[in-house]
Design a protein that fits this description.
By secondary structure, the protein is an all-alpha fold. Helix content is 61%, strand content 1%. The chain contains 18 helices and 2 strands.
């Protein structure tokens, strides 16, 4: 029996190592194509370092390459293509003054380190051999999904959202000492400051407040406040946030074709070389045969507009989103209140609430938004047991496969994969046994 287990362990390691090597090889080629979205983050960080707001900025020749971004090319829009929060730009300050080519390479390394760290944290939460295999398998499988691939392709930030979420969750369920309270508070606030609608992810954790001591909650609050002070402490930072809010309103108008503000902008030329990038080499890299770009938009309004042949008003999207969130919370309370509110089910509920807001967003979402799924995927993998039905597992695997297939079998298949995973998580949350992941007793949460 032991030899049989060792054999499969060796097989898993060999196949996993081969898969990882292939993914690194593939992603190195994809990165050479130029991760375009990373550029507006870098420009945003540089402008804030220089005391300027990036949200309504358009390039002028006198600025040289420091603020140059050939993707910010609209001749008529007032709003720019900067959509990251001012806090995320602050996180980029240490890298911002390096060349774009150097930052791009560092960024891909950071993406891999973030995924490896999340997988390791999930592995540390496991208790059985099956759970350990499930955690490693999930991390490796995720490298093949378009949720991951499009993050690499565009140099996107979305992989950092589940990273902060998992750090928060891991700190919350571990021994309730002051260090973990500090980590939990800082990561929770960082999560909201990077992606404000993640408040929906954190909101259900209010149900656990009574389980922690006053000292724990004070340290948690102080750590969160320090992050908040970093984000809003100066007059210039508050101005950036004000501009960010105005820009997001303009983005909604733009994506919903509601007449965004216009102005006359200078044309943005395409230079052959800038900050280590060469357009000829990029064109050669784009001929890489083992990756096919997918520009799907998985929003509910895209699906509704296509199915009903009408334009869905923003207020209808908001009403549908709010109704689904209320219904989901009601079903959760109905099931778990007679038993207990545990971190696992709360985290799964928060994940579903956050992704509901994301799917109902009036701004076009891309496949890289799906990077958040790695949080509930690792969560379920790390505490996999007989309580998780085979139907739910089949749904998760099917969803990941649909999101991974490079061959287009039918329209919107990658987005459909996300919806199948969403349904599987809802099935686990609402139909699995409440004791899926027994946590420490309440007394262990006190310090």
């Amino acid at each position: 029996m032991a030899k049989h287990a060792q054999f499969w362990c060796v097989v898993f390691i060999v196949l996993g190592a081969a898969s990882l090597c292939w993914c690194i090889y593939r992603d190195l080629h994809i990165e050479k194509q130029y991760p375009g979205d990373l550029r507006n983050r870098v420009v945003g960080a540089r402008m804030q370092l220089d005391g300027l707001s990036p949200y309504f900025h358009h390039w002028k020749p006198a600025e040289g390459f420091r603020y140059y971004d050939w993707d910010n090319y609209s001749p008529t829009l007032k709003v720019s293509n900067a959509t990251a929060t001012p806090f995320f730009h602050q996180l980029l300050y240490p890298l911002a003054n390096l060349s774009q080519r150097t930052i791009s390479r560092i960024w891909m390394v950071l993406e891999y380190l973030v995924l490896a760290t999340m997988t390791l944290l999930a592995w540390r939460m496991t208790k059985t051999r099956k759970q350990k295999y499930a955690a490693w398998f999930t991390g490796l499988f995720f490298l093949h999904t378009y949720a991951w691939l499009t993050n690499v392709e565009m140099g996107q930030l979305y992989i950092f959202i589940p990273f902060f979420a998992l750090i928060f969750y891991n700190a919350l369920i571990r021994k309730a000492n002051l260090l973990n309270a500090c980590i939990a508070g800082a990561s929770a606030m960082a999560l909201v400051l990077v992606r404000p609608n993640t408040m929906l992810l954190l909101l259900p954790f209010v149900l656990l407040v009574a389980k922690f001591s006053l000292r724990y909650k004070l340290v948690f609050g102080i750590a969160a406040f320090v992050c908040l002070a970093v984000a809003f402490g100066s007059r210039s930072s508050r101005f950036y946030w004000s501009d960010y809010l105005e820009a997001m309103k303009e983005q909604v108008k733009l994506h919903q074709e509601l007449g965004p503000a216009v102005q006359q902008n200078l044309p943005v030329p395409l230079f052959e070389n800038f900050e280590g990038w060469n357009r000829t080499r990029m064109e050669i890299a784009n001929k890489f045969p083992f990756y096919k770009h997918s520009g799907e938009h998985g929003n509910m309004f895209v699906l509704l507009n296509s199915a009903l042949h009408v334009k869905t008003p923003v207020w209808v999207l908001s009403a549908l989103c709010a109704s689904f969130i209320v219904l989901l919370c009601w079903l959760y309370f109905k099931k778990y209140k007679p038993v207990s509110f545990e971190p696992f089910s709360i985290a799964l509920l928060g994940s579903c609430l956050y992704m509901t807001s994301d799917l109902f967003s009036p701004v076009h979402r891309f496949l890289y938004n799906g990077a958040f799924w790695i949080f509930p995927l690792l969560l379920v993998a790390s505490c996999y047991s007989a309580s998780v039905s085979k139907l739910s597992v089949a749904g998760i695997v099917a969803g990941m496969l649909l999101n991974s297939l490079p061959v287009g079998l039918f329209p919107m298949q990658h987005s459909l994969g996300e919806y199948v995973m969403f349904a599987a998580f809802l099935h686990i949350l609402l139909f699995s046994k409440p004791d899926i992941n027994p946590e420490k007793k309440q007394s262990s949460l006190r310090i």
